[in-house]
Design a protein that fits this description.
By secondary structure, the chain is of the alpha+beta class. The protein contains three helices and three strands, in the order ααβββα. It has helices spanning 4-15, 20-30, 72-84; strands at 40-43, 52-53, 64-66. A three-stranded antiparallel β-sheet has the order 2-1-3. A hairpin with an 8-residue loop joins strand 1 (40-43) and strand 2 (52-53). The protein is globular and about 30 Å long.
Length: 94
Amino acid sequence: MKNGKIQYETRESVLELLSDDEVATVSTAETAGRLLEDDEYLDLDRLDQGVQRAIGTAPKMGSVLPKKAIRLETWSKILARLDGHGIGKTDASA
């Protein structure tokens, strides 16, 4: 995303969809060190890239929202929210 304000607002709107339990799970995942091969995730610092898959070197965990750390219902809401901001989904989200 080119506009930093939109990036921040989108990131905040994504995080608002997480339940308290999901926030705790995501926080634990951040300290885990890395994602497993083929894990789907969103990079909260680069939401414009949409859903990504972990391949080779993993992204910085502090900015990662792993799909496996949240409920499928929440993941779907997040993707809908991103779509509403004009952020396309990648093949990983299919």
